[in-house]
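Page 47, continued from p. 46.
Same chain as before, 356 aa.
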Amino acid sequence: ARSRNDQVAVDIRLYLRDEAEEIVGLIKELITAIVAQAEQNAEVIAPAYTHLQRAQPISFGHQLMAYAMMLLRDIGRIEDAVKRMDAECPLGSCALAGTTYPTDRAHTAKALGFAGACRNSIDGVSDRDFCLEYLSAASIMMMHLSRLSEEIVLWSSWEFSFVELDDAYTTGSSIMPQKKNSDMAELIRGKTGRVYGDLMALLTTLKGLPLAYNKDMQEDKESVFDACDTALLCLDVMTPMIATMRAKTENMKRAAQKGFINATDLADYLVKKGMPFRTAYKLSGGLVAKCIREGRVLEELSLEEYRAESELFDEDVFEAIDLAVCVEKRISEGGTSVASVEKQIEIVKTALPSLQ
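Result:
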């Protein structure tokens, strides 16, 4: 009452179940490292970007927690895939039509940890949705690792100089002694495309197959095994790289100042004094242009210079445009204030009791 067809369909489910448990464990370790960095940097002022242009002041911890939230969703996607994977056991479907022998499929399903037997024997041997769903979840997770890797490459460059990576996760150059290349981050970014390729390869293999089993389906192993190995390898490297990363806090703060990312707060200051926002926007833009011409930042202008533009300016303008104050004023849920970042950290710790 068995066939290679249903046995292989069961085996790959059992394999992916074990791989999923391992990968979820490694994601939790990465989230732990991110949360630790976020706790250390909850009050560190940094510029946030849109279009790779400095936009608004945030805390570096707030930026890091964005990745913790992404990875939490990755865990949920993988666990959902496993839940569906474990819902139906193909064993007993045989070649495709079932068997004439009096088997107890419910018993074998339960013994192997499945919720029940698959309800259609043809579907049982030809279904590889669970492989695709797992590869999709792995691809999304790798996309998140790739985005974080890209940030690390930028942050560790001389142009940004926001973080310094441990020597263990960088390499030098064969001819340029000053180089400290973020090769591990670049490799993770590169291997993301490999996992995407595994997903697309299996989708392409399955798209034209008639029911039930076809030999083409043996290609599922190559895609699944490679994607699992690649994802595990990348997580193994990413976690200690994040854990040993050092934030260059003064460089972040200076970049935030030079980016004039408190210009919106300057305009808001005038609006609260009664000026229409359109007028306040234009006036603030003029002061930014003045600072750029003179190589200064808004905090370095004198009160007299401010009052030359509008009598609404008073001593309290300097508090209004202080970057730390700008960050702390973002009190909405999920925002960048220290209290909000601490709440985000607590949410993640509650979601992952291992972080407690």
